[in-house]
Amino acid sequence: MNEHEVTVEQEIANPFHSKPHVLLLGAGASKAALPNGDKHGRPVPLLRDIAEDLKLDNLFPEELKELATKDFESAYSKLFELGVSEELNKIDSLVRGYFSKLELPDEPNLYDAINLSMRDKDVILTFNWDPFLMQSRIRLAKLGITTSFPQLFFLHGNVTVGFCEEHNTSGIAEQPCSRCRKPFKPSKLLYPVEHKDYQSDNFIKREWEAAQYYLKNCSVFTVFGYSAPVTDKEAIGLLKDGWGDVNDRSMEQTEIINRPGSDHDALSETWSPFIHTHHVDILDSFYDSFIAKHPRRSVEAYWNQYWEAKFISNNPVPQNFSSLSEMAEWFKPLVDAEKKS
Ligand SMILES: [Zn+2]
């Protein structure tokens, strides 16, 4: 054994770190997970395409139709100002209806790899309304391989997640709250962007407070498929507040995952408030990230490489599992070592 080196076996055997790895997901993550649509071939729309894809533009008055297809959030905001509740309700229910119906294909998916590659000290923040992260979580939990999954926070609400106002708890929408047995009320999805106020809704407020707390305390921050934060100034402002002053952070690593061929310079510029000196990697695939190269040990690997200056070896998550149980089997040594420690 070499004291300057960490082998794959050593990495698996030693889950010693308690700091979280925070993964922020945007619509690009769902596009990467389901490039050909969901189980039934239904496309996963990006927010900017939603009016066209879901044929919502007909619900907008003539003067807002074009804006609706170009900048849906802004058009929705203007419609909100007009106070036409019938149209607003229709749009809400069409959006909710569409996203609720989406389904993960039966075969192992990128979302399964994400859920299994992080532990319960780690955190996923998602902007996505779609049900894929939760559907994956539910089917993996049924396999019984582990109960140590990353914590999930839904920054823009989610079709699968509901909230109990009285007990400030969330769970699967329409399932009973464990304290009062009343069904969790579905989380809100659409907000008028020009008045986007993350404080006005108790569920969203709680999710953002958690996001800021974990951003402040994480060692590694990975952004996957969220490339246009300029459209959501308040969101990026809140993320920045949570992260704090980049100069006060020492050594933390930031990773940006985007679709192949994206403009790396523009991405570095966008995310510069989150980048400590040169500690950034811009990647084309989730499988190139620290999470996928050091599953369930990403912060340990980061620590060994950057703080201890050791040579580390990759333990990459395979990309060609034929079944979920085969996938679970691959993660078993990692989970077993966690139970022992
Ligand atoms: Zn309750």
Give an overview in words.
The chain has 341 residues and is α/β, with parallel strands linked by helices. Among the domains are: 19-40 and 105-156 and 191-284, Rossmann fold; 47-101, no CATH class. The chain has helices at residues 8-13, 27-33, 50-53, 62-70, 72-82, 85-101, 110-116, 132-143, 202-217, 233-243, 264-270, 290-293, 298-307, 324-340; strands spanning 5-6, 21-25, 123-126, 151-154, 161-164, 169-172, 185-186, 220-224, 253-257, 280-283, 311-312. The protein has a 6-stranded parallel sheet, with helices on both faces. A 3-stranded antiparallel sheet has the order 6-5-7, with no helix packed on it. Helix 10 links the parallel strand 8 (220-224) and strand 9 (253-257). The chain starts with a strand and ends with a helix. The model has no long low-confidence stretch (mean pLDDT 90).
Features:
single chain, 341 residues, alpha/beta, Rossmann fold, 6-stranded parallel sheet, 14 helices, binds zinc ion
